[in-house]
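A favour, since you know our structure tokens better than I do. Just paste the record in under my message, thanks.
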Amino acid sequence: MTRTAIVVGAGPNGLAAAARLAEHGVQVSVYEQGEHPGGAARSADTLGPGTIVDLGAAAHPFGIGSPAFRHLDLERHGLRWLHHRYPMAHPLDTGSSVLLHPDLEQTAEELGVDAGAWRLLHRAVAGHPLESLQNATGPLLRIPPHPPLMAGFGARALWPAGATARLAFRTEAARALFAGSAAHSMLPLNHAFTAGFAVLFGGLGQSLGWPVAQGGTNSIINALVRHLALAGVVIHTHSPVRDLRELPASDAVLLDLTPRQVLELKGTGIGGRYAAHLRHWKYGPGAFKVDYLLDGPIPWRDERTAHAGTVHVGGSLAELMDAEREVGRGRVSARPFVMLAQPSAVDGSRAPAGRQVIWSYAHVPNGCDAEVGPLVDRQIERFAPGFAQRIITRVETPPRALEDWNPNLVGGDIGGGSLRGTQQLLRPAPTLRPYRAGAPGLYICSSSTPPGGGVHGMAGWHAAHAVLRDLGIARRPTTTGETGARP
């Protein structure tokens, strides 16, 4: 008897879940309310004809090493990763930038007296990036695929990034470089576990890199869609789902939705304690996005910065800590932390000849409606005098507009929910089976489940494993290093 499954939501996690189920003979249909699949991992010409702008994530240290994407061999379906000379740069007020090289030794050598400490913190992840991702991209409350590696990582990850940077490093350059990677957590840098983000992002950058997808992040989705078409998966676009009882009968329904959207669905059968946990789910800070079309590269004081894929714009460790602390208190920092990507520096398809597409966002409180765009401009201008004169077009997308475009981005939260407190370990409810959604045959596979946000598909991958286990279907071996607690 052929088993059937329905996936609601065609983000990377929903598509990865569909791919894994189809690989095991499950007949899968995907329902997507939008015009195109992809969720927040899409691209468009929002800066004008001939431009490609990533509407969500732009650089992909998790995507290139994702166990799911590697198993699906997305390069066979047209995906191409492009690497900048430097995965990341962090400008300082001294006029120079501290650089993350694609090699741990190169990075360490430039940090001088902090070389030894930098190597000590990053060498395990940089030396074993794929194994580290296998550990990091699953539920934390399980036996990891590589226990000794995870134990070493955990000893570094448990601490606040601010305290770790101050204790481990003597120079402002090393401290700022470390803190910028930690800020990807969208948590105050005195919060426990933020050092783990710094070690993981830094280690991946110094091994696998922080590449962009040629032709835009949508190219990742296009490759997934091609794979699914060959597997016989049907994707229904323009198909919003408001009541699960209106869907065809199936053995399993997987929801690529965050708790708020799950609770708005009718016919789920969810109730009791599980529904109460979803109602108490907390969303994290928002992103205030600003995209730019320039008449040339950003005129960074340190010209090497123009060759970096990602630039962390925020200044010193102290400034980053102040900025993230303000956001955590629900206030906009006068000097916000800005994440910036320069994809067209290596991908000529992103912009007309002689032009540059710049992608950026600032960390702001959830749902923020303040005028943040000028603050982003000033932060970039601070390290690149003359930047404003290079702007041909700019487009602002505040948090509420992000949510209007994609309801999963509640209040501009791009990570599916805050990582504060127990939500970092117990997503989306306090259970050792996070992908089961509180009703028979119902599963959740969004970024509100482990491992959280990012374009990697692993939440959907693990949710599919839960379905296969419940349906009694034996899983074929993969590159994911499947061991540990039952998902």
